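ping. complex inputs:
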Amino acid sequence: MDLLLDTPLDMHLHLREGEMLGLVAPFSAAQFAGGVVMPNLVQPVDSLERVRAYRAAIAATCGTTGFAPYMTLFFRDYTSQDLAEVKDEIIGVKLYPAGITTQSEAGVRDFDRIGATVALLEELDIPLLVHGETGGFVMEREQEFLKVYQWLAETFPRLRLVMEHITTAAAIEFLDRFDQVAATVTLHHLLITLDDIAGGLLRQDIFCKPIAKTPRDRDALRQAVLAGHPRLMFGSDSAPHPRHKKERLGCAAGVFSAPVALPALAELFVEAGCAEHLPAFVSANARSFYRIEPPAKTVRLEPIAWRVPDRYGEVTPFLAGKTIGWGVKAPHPSQF
Amino acid sequence: MDLLLDTPLDMHLHLREGEMLGLVAPFSAAQFAGGVVMPNLVQPVDSLERVRAYRAAIAATCGTTGFAPYMTLFFRDYTSQDLAEVKDEIIGVKLYPAGITTQSEAGVRDFDRIGATVALLEELDIPLLVHGETGGFVMEREQEFLKVYQWLAETFPRLRLVMEHITTAAAIEFLDRFDQVAATVTLHHLLITLDDIAGGLLRQDIFCKPIAKTPRDRDALRQAVLAGHPRLMFGSDSAPHPRHKKERLGCAAGVFSAPVALPALAELFVEAGCAEHLPAFVSANARSFYRIEPPAKTVRLEPIAWRVPDRYGEVTPFLAGKTIGWGVKAPHPSQF
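pong. complex structure:
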């Protein structure tokens, strides 16, 4: 039996720019009603002007597909006037610790100095989206960062706070302590652990940040998502890199999952007997938390197996070469 | 002031075969008086005939360098006669769990069935060298395997047992419980953690098995080695792969450290103010545990900085491009 998804949303998405934008955005536009677009371009999207220019570039690529790009602003010190001007054009402000992931060098170096801007976000009711990792040991970075989340949640109790791409059982536990906090979960962190990356041969193609953690962590994420946790939202963190950046020594972190996200989620939820919770995870929870009304779009998933291509253009997708038991009707841009 | 090392030994070494043997063995032969040669060739070294053939191939490569190859036999079911015949030609028998690392497919699948052969090793006083990892989660494999070590140590109390290339604080603690157990420690596990491999860009060149663990684990190894633990022996686990196996998607595990091992160890011990414990770690502890008398060879280390080449032939060495503050007098085969 087909699954009909009402207005699926990808609440954490890297569309890149230039040629790569042209390659990858159509995949998201074909399968999602909208997506939260991350601002960590080579030049961070950190002004109203840049938000508008990036939105225009995305619109030019996605055309009339009915895809709503929910723009984000790169966190730095902003004035009240800055934020008031940009507020209607963004869904939130995205905070990166400096240097923690791809193109995050302009991020926060001193968390003691972010209070004034965060207070403005709370006052203006602009959500704060956070890449929550310290610079500590790679397997412990997210858990160590929970103290920053706690400080934010306690100091700014009316701030809507999003823990992005959570990967640990500890983050799930933390989420339950604060009603104003939500989190995104990727597809790949529901499927893989560090074992898949480094347990056999080293798999550059699925190397990502935050790094995939332990089986216990993955199970905690799965359990919460499949049980229909009301503040967990799907965010693919689809982050394409061209082959030469994945295959070189010193491989870039990122998994391009946009083309496979909904089919693989359908397979996961159906096999677990939890298909009734998929619509909340991929749409309703996000609409409720962010108070958004995306353009209506129904996506039909069919239980028809397909083999994920080895590459789309110069990008290896997540699950390349694997067979997925569910497919999206008319899933791909016309050139593929 | 120069450091003079009396008869340095590398107690865990992959010399490979064919062209690769010709490339890498001279590095070990130039800097070490002898080394324990691992038997996991494409065709495992699992008979007297193969031990002799492999020894001859190594001798042909190392010539008159005064390098003693201490041969090992790949663990499988052996009869008392098999082992009695080969005993004088080997230093020990090397056990691999099946499929746990490079060319280990012929290893042990069922530990309940190894008792008879292990009893023979105990009776004949042939040391058992073990790659101690389960097939569990990559960061926990060594710790999970400690129960097998415990069973071996308790069931065969006169067996000389070597925990190869240990990487965890738990292994150090275990070692102190059984006097008849020793362990090898690599250079790279004294220097790196998982952070170095996967904390920034993904570093295929230093991807190894067992995977490098946490800072706490590395610190425990360092502390025990630098304090002169009498049953810790240096074993490089130098494991060269040609570039195409390290740079491809699905990268092979192994670090080629033979050319840099003694200089980097000298630097580590001297900087920690523990130079007096280096001779035991790289020679005396192994001579005592294995009761061997290698051909005398003095190696002179000088406090002269040198830059590690990016490649030796088709192999990227450990610490490629880095500067080491100590060098071995006449360290390299003549062609480099």
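Chain B has twelve helices and 13 strands.
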